[in-house]
Amino acid sequence: MMLSDVMEDYLKAIYQLQRGDDERVKTSAIAEELDVTSPTVTSMLEKLEDRSLIDREKYRGVTLTEEGETVALEVVRHHRLLEAYLTEHLDYDWSEVHEEADRLEHHISENFEARVAAALDEPEVDPHGSPIPSPDLEPPNTAVGNPISECGEGDTVIVKEVADHDPEILSYLADHGLEPGVELEVLEVAPFGMVTASARGSDTQVSLPEDVARHIRVALPAEAE
Amino acid sequence: MMLSDVMEDYLKAIYQLQRGDDERVKTSAIAEELDVTSPTVTSMLEKLEDRSLIDREKYRGVTLTEEGETVALEVVRHHRLLEAYLTEHLDYDWSEVHEEADRLEHHISENFEARVAAALDEPEVDPHGSPIPSPDLEPPNTAVGNPISECGEGDTVIVKEVADHDPEILSYLADHGLEPGVELEVLEVAPFGMVTASARGSDTQVSLPEDVARHIRVALPAEAE
DNA sequence: AGGCAAATTTAGCCCTATCTAACCCTAAAT
DNA sequence: ATTTAGGGTTAGATAGGGCTAAATTTGCCT
Ligand SMILES: [Mn+2]
Ligand SMILES: [Mn+2]
Ligand SMILES: [Mn+2]
Ligand SMILES: [Mn+2]
């Protein structure tokens, strides 16, 4: 099946927006994610449905079919392998990789994918700590760790994943020592979702508004593998 | 100026087909190079002319403007840097690189280009011996060496460039020791353009039909830098 | 000069991906 | 049971890239 890069982006967006297993993803959510208008999304959803890549209930949203999920996982694998390769071998900073990978993910061959994976020794996570789907594209188990906003005050935790895409925010976080693998002390969790924490070894502390904190997942040292 | 990847391919094709400096490239030549029909070429040429990327005399062909040439050189630089990187760092064989580079050339950022060039230490030629345009995109001087078909029988020469794109032919040539840098003895130049030669150190000889030989450029050892 | 074959352009159509404007559904509130 | 706000879908337009079939132009040959 020949899919355009745009179709691949839609499937990837649906994959990433689909939280629960039968939770339907809404037109407006896709429109916002991909920065297009909702009629544009509707017409694309019709095409994806024609190709059996999604199940659709008009007016109520879509879910990926198994085939659609496989395509999405393929694109995500490309994306995350590229992010890892760019940081490991081409001197990219983790704040720069997303944009580059977001274009290249649609244009590399299976051969390229395999060589990159080999050069990285089959990595399991990308520079943000997000899991890289395996070559067989089986749906990976759910993410490791929990959102940092669910921590209690005073908890000491290990950062597992920083799934933000904004270069400015990522640079800011790195400047404050907040990267995967770092040990963190949670100082305050405000009722409106703001989290204040301090990286182990640094005196400075960071305050993270809810929409930033949402993308940070952590685990208790005990749970840390 | 936002150019589509298809437009970039047209400009690159015109660049590579334009032998002399004011030699006009014909519709049919572009059509054949890009594997599209001539009406398709005509309509694209109109668009490129609108954007001042080519000069066009209806029914008589086109030439690149300075601006168009710069775009073409940019694409060629991307292409050849990618070919070099894929062979040097990702274990590609020179017979495989063309297809991959031909897609990726349109999708890498200037940042990616710079990192790849740095990783390769600013290379001057790609794996086929073709010159990589410099970062400032000044038109490079003409190719080194001369077509092997212009050799005399008995000449001993150094292979400078093997500008073929066909993977099968490239594998065949490599199997017979015919690669850039190799010393070659020209055994026979037949009147219909077929060249027979033997790589230094190998007993076997290769016979190259005219359309293969045309892409191979060589220099006398004296001229060799 | 006239005629003809080959190359090129024009005309008219298709498909994708996007938009805006207009219309329609759903679900929650009255 | 209505209303209504907030999506979602339909309709119609535009722009890019492509094709086939039908004109045109060129350039060469007689
Ligand atoms: Mn993408
Ligand atoms: Mn793949
Ligand atoms: Mn190309
Ligand atoms: Mn460039």
From TrEMBL, chains A, B:
Source species: Natronosalvus hydrolyticus
Subcellular compartments: Cytoplasm
Location (main, coarse): cytoplasm
Protein name as annotated: Metal-dependent transcriptional regulator
SMART domains: FeoA, HTH_DTXR
Self-association and partners: Homodimer.
Region (Disordered) location: 122-146
Start and end residues of each HTH dtxR-type domain: 3-65
Gene3D superfamilies the record matches: 2.30.30.90, Iron dependent repressor, metal binding and dimerisation domain (1.10.60.10), Winged helix-like DNA-binding domain superfamily/Winged helix DNA-binding domain (1.10.10.10)
Gene Ontology CC terms, in alphabetical order: cytoplasm
Keywords on record: DNA-binding, Iron, Transcription, Transcription regulation
InterPro entries from the UniProt entry: DtxR_MntR_Metal-Reg (IPR050536), Fe-transptr_FeoA-like (IPR007167), Fe_dep_repressor (IPR001367), Fe_dep_repressor_sf (IPR036421), FeoA_core_dom (IPR038157), HTH_DTXR (IPR022687), Iron_dep_repressor (IPR022689), Transcriptional_repressor_C (IPR008988)
Similarity-based family: Belongs to the DtxR/MntR family.
Xref: Pfam families: Fe_dep_repr_C (PF02742), Fe_dep_repress (PF01325), FeoA (PF04023)
Superkingdom field: Archaea
Annotated GO MF terms: DNA binding; DNA-binding transcription factor activity; protein dimerization activity; transition metal ion binding
